[in-house]
Amino acid sequence: MREIILIKLGEIVLKGLNRNSFEAVLKKNVKSALKSLGGCDAKVMQSAMYVTIPEGGDADQYAEAISKVFGIVAYTRACECEKNIEEMQKAAVSYLADQLEDASTFKVETKRSDKKFPMTSPEISAQVGGYILEKFPHLKVDVHKPEMTVRVEVRENSAYVHGNQLHGAGGLPVGTGGRAGIMISGGIDSPVAAWMMAKRGVELTAVHFASPPYTSERAEQKVIDLLGAVSDWAGVIKLHIVPFTELQEAIRDNSPEDMFTITMRRLMIKITERIAAKDGCLAMISGESLGQVASQTLPALFCTDDAANMPILRPLIGMDKDEIIRISRKIGTFDISVQPFEDCCTVFTPRHPRTRPTIDMARDAEAMIPNEEELIEKAIADVRKVWISPNR
Ligand code: ATP
Ligand code: MG
User: Fold this and answer.
1) How many CB atoms lie within 10 A of CB 6?
2) Ligand 1: does its nearest atom lie under 6 Å from the Cβ of 129?
């Protein structure tokens, strides 16, 4: 018995003329998500993709990897069988035994795209349904609200039998939404922000600011691990680790203490923007949420945006912390984020940060750094690059 995964194409079927290229990107993403598991054969037919699991492939692992591919609304594991009614009956009771055992009501739905098949769809449903009732006498047929729907599809080459659908990751295929530069810390928020933009089809370039010796190698490894988890969903990510210590010391030594965080964030944005632009990005992404801390009030965000030319996407801006945590648990980053390693943002933080800075204050504070351009260029020249691939 051969198992396949049937993928229902989501929003992408609505994309009119772009449809073919969206489908091609999704197919490429499905194939690359399954590559390390043993690869697959993927075919698109009538708003569904048929993914064949090779001999010896672990169907559970395949399904788990598929559940993290954006652009898929729903998918089902199905079993392929010969196109005759006895084989379909047998396939239904053996392949779906667990689900049928647990259900109390069911119905059978048949789709017959091979019009030459000698039975009609209602006839097939009746025959398969009757056989299921014989083998699972506790079941009752309910055509309106069944707990379990057994689906039979009769296609040109084979028939397929499958049960209830599973939820896919939704969103759009990564690679259809351009590229953006995620500013990634070791915290809870920025990995979630990265995931949310990848969900809308955006490819990621990552930038992390490290301040050795104030921050440790373990803190950098934490960021690499976080991006590994994000990469399960977002595909390969190029990470740039920027040495930030000298810039932070220059801010501390030259500009007002209460403007330290704003000035630091303006420099982070300027550096991220240059790295992102070189990598073909059209936007930056941050994990800020309105009012969460002093540097995330509207006046503070106004002052940081003043240092940027590219748009800064803030997908968490209207979310509460508990909503963000819920997503971080779901995507597998929470347990990594809560490991206790210091971030560069905790180095030299002011006792009383200004929550209502003005643009003039922000520009003046930054202008007090005498050799800013030189330090920025040096930091960028000393960037360390790390390629991140999925954790699995
Ligand atoms: P997070 O949980 O993502 O660290 P946070 O609530 O702790 O966010 P801040 O520390 O003020 O907030 O950082 C706000 C945003 O700035 C982060 O979400 C991230 O996008 C960016 N950022 C913070 N620290 C760094 C860093 N060391 N390197 C790169 N980006 C950073
Ligand atoms: Mg942080």
Assistant:
1) 18
2) no
